[in-house]
Write a sequence for this structure.
């Protein structure tokens, strides 16, 4: 059965922030140093934006297997903190021949504050 949306709940850990930093080379202390981050306007470590986008891209691939990315826009209206329960969602919003448009988001499970918004167009695999 084909679906047009997918939703997953997930709590990201500080360890995952560290592992993404090691993988990506982005070891900005706002992501990996809780003591440093506590002194910033965020008050705690925050997820790498590309880590969030990567998780959402995985959901999109479940909706459009093998799709090739044609375009993408991303916004980060609020931070995503380690240890905070989050909701990751992706949904198909349009189809035009072999192009599929999707909207995806990350939001806090409590209060629903959106922390990452993505609009993507994928070309379906032949």
């Amino acid at each position: 059965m084909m679906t047009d949306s997918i939703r997953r709940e997930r709590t990201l850990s500080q360890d995952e922030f560290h592992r993404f930093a090691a993988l990506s080379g982005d070891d900005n202390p706002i992501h990996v140093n809780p003591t440093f981050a506590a002194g910033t306007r965020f008050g705690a470590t925050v997820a790498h934006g590309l880590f969030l986008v990567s998780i959402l891209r995985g959901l999109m691939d479940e909706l459009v297997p093998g799709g090739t990315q044609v375009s993408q826009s991303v916004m980060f209206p609020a931070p995503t903190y380690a240890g905070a329960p989050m909701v990751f969602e992706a949904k198909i919003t349009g189809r035009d021949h072999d192009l599929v448009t999707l909207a995806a988001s990350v939001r806090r499970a409590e209060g629903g504050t959106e922390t990452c918004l993505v609009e993507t167009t994928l070309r379906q695999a032949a």
About this structure: The CA atoms of residues 89 and 122 lie 16 Å apart.
